[in-house]
Amino acid sequence: MKQYKIGVVGLGAMGSGYLENLKADSRWHVVSVCDLNAERLDWAAELLPGVRTTNDAHDIITDTEIDVVGIFTLADIRPRLLKDSLDHGKHVMAEKPIASSVAEEKELLQTIESSDRIVAVNLFNRNAWYHEQMQEFIRHGEIGDLGVITISHQTPGLMPTEGHQPEGPPFHDCGMHYVDVARWYAGSEYDRWHAQGIRMWSWPDPWWVHAHGQFRNGVVFSITQGFVYGQLAETKVVRCGLDAIGTKGVIRMQHDFSTVRIEYHGVRRTAVKEGPYGGKKLDVMCERFARALDTGDTGLLPTARDSVIASEVSQAMLDQATANSAPCVGSPDEMAEILAHRGK
After folding, report:
1. First CA to last CA across the chain, in angstroms?
2. Cα within 13 Å of Cα(76), Cβ side
3. How far apart are CA 125 and CA 285, in angstroms?
4. For residues 326 and 328, what is the distance between their CA atoms, to the nearest angstrom?
5. pTM of the model
6. Which fold would CATH assign to domain 125-342?
7. Strand order in the sheet with 239-246
8. Which residues on neighbouring strands pair with residue 222, listed in sequence order?
């Protein structure tokens, strides 16, 4: 099988994860890496002896040896890098959102969809074995017609001031993943919703948001996302999962970022399955991107359009939650205490 040559731009948490997965996949040869942080470049050179390092993304984008550019920077500089990559005939693997504003994302989407290059955006849930198996159960008619999707993703995640500002507050930065999941299961576009948030520790942005409503095909949804779940609890706890409720049966899934547990309650089959959560599924993303390059079939890749829709809807829900006079609970002193604890 053909090996593809890639240049990686951005070696933060996501970029370093991609680099490790690309190294482990024989379909990929990492030619160059780019970052403004010299220590990260040194780490990459140690991980991949012989890799070229640079602090100028243009060196990668203009390199005729490279087939694919991986854009794993923060959102505010992704549009320029993505446009330049397409202008130089590169395929692109990118993190979400593809820009720091919905208007810029929509403009960029037109450029992407008018190109003949493959662009995939990491909506990682679409690469998850458990969601694929759950949707297969639904397609086999085991729960009848899908009527209700409930999603919870509540964790002690990033606190205010801890980064990701270009990606926005949690319901946009993280919540767009679950806005995408609900739309994927429903197989329809969002119709209407109501969103409520809460401003924790006197921070101006809601750090917990609940949205419920319906899709155009009548499926209803409930999405709850927040990084407020037990920030100072003695034992780490999360509430993450999805219920798909049909006219005849139900599927219940929950995970703790280590193990996924699925309970299938269908008309012909009742079963429980457990398996590994698998993090951000970067190994699957890299494998499927190489396969798409082989065949030209991008059907298994999360698309830029999916990302832009999820970004636009999650931002609209966040805006509504903010406008709905989100109440404030907690104090700046509590936030300082949490930040100090997390910094230990």
Report:
1. 47
2. 5
3. 10
4. 7
5. 0.96
6. Dihydrodipicolinate Reductase; domain 2 (3.30.360)
7. 270-276, 259-265, 250-255, 239-246, 146-154, 220-226, 208-215, 190-200, 328-329
8. 150, 212
Q: How many CA atoms lie within 13 A of 117 on its CB side?
A: 23
CATH tag for 4-117 (out of 3.40.190.290, 3.30.1360.70, 3.40.50.300, 3.40.50.720):
3.40.50.720
Cβ-based burial of 203 (10 A; exposed 0-12, middle 13-18, buried ≥19): middle
Of the candidates 54, 14, 52, the one whose C-alpha atom is nearest the C-alpha of residue 30 is 52
pLDDT tens track for 127-183: 999 999 999 999 999 999 999 999 999 999 999 999 767 888 999 999 999 999 999
Host H or E run for residue 304: helix 304-323
Model pLDDT for residues 174-204, shown as the tens digit of each residue: 999 999 999 999 999 999 999 999 999 999 9
Q: At residue 135, what is the residue type? A: Q
61 burial class (0-12, 13-18, 19+ CB within 10 angstroms)?
buried
CB 196 within 8 Å of CB 210: yes
Domain map of the chain by residue range?
Answer: 4-117, 125-342
For residue 118, how many other CB atoms are within 10 A of its CB?
18
The residue assigned the tokens 């100090």 is 340
Structural contact between residues 40 and 11, judged by C-beta atoms closer than 8 angstroms: yes
| Whole-number Cα distances in Å, 259 to 151, 274, 278 | 17, 7, 8
Kindly compute the dihedral angle of the four CA atoms of residues 146, 221, 226, 126, in this order, to the nearest 10 degrees. 40
Q: 184 Cβ partners below 8 Å, 6+ apart?
A: 125, 126, 131, 135, 306
